[in-house]
């Protein structure tokens, strides 16, 4: 585990203090760090002035070099970029060019990517799966459908393999959905032209990524980038 120091400002009292942070973890060599990331323990801090307990947001690299071929996720809080080059803080991650390298802007997205890759799924397909599922739900009952789905786990229910998603509406938890894994397999075929688009940097692969590429496939003569 690599540690460093950073200055945080308490959102309650405005007190500035220096804390120890962990800008990068490799759960292959430090497997105990996985749970600390998922629970948020790794990002906790307590204000020395007012005792407020919260989370410190800072750029963070999560590496798993073995699970399902390995993957890397780069968390940059509130990042508006869609891609980040392999320079600076993550310059030593060039080996991941043949493996998933993803950019996320918040902890929930980081955890979802970890769950997706650990389940042996392609996050691009999962994002297409979510886009199509939400579109179908809007057609069926637009007043009661979630506006966001987060992948939770791959499971078997009554002998059928399913993908479990947590559903949110206006950031409020609505419950969970169990959807057939067979629909995921259908999405692999549905989005076939998209999967040929190369990803050479840490990219934000989300619903926007999918919708942009679906637009490129809908009769556009523009060159796909």
Automatic annotation (TrEMBL):
Annotated source species: Methanocorpusculum parvum
Lineage: Archaea, Methanobacteriati, Methanobacteriota, Stenosarchaea group, Methanomicrobia
UniProt superkingdom: Archaea
Domain CpXC span(s) in chain numbering: 8-130
InterPro entries: CpXC_dom (IPR025682)
One protein family per Pfam: CpXC
Name of this protein: CpXC domain-containing protein
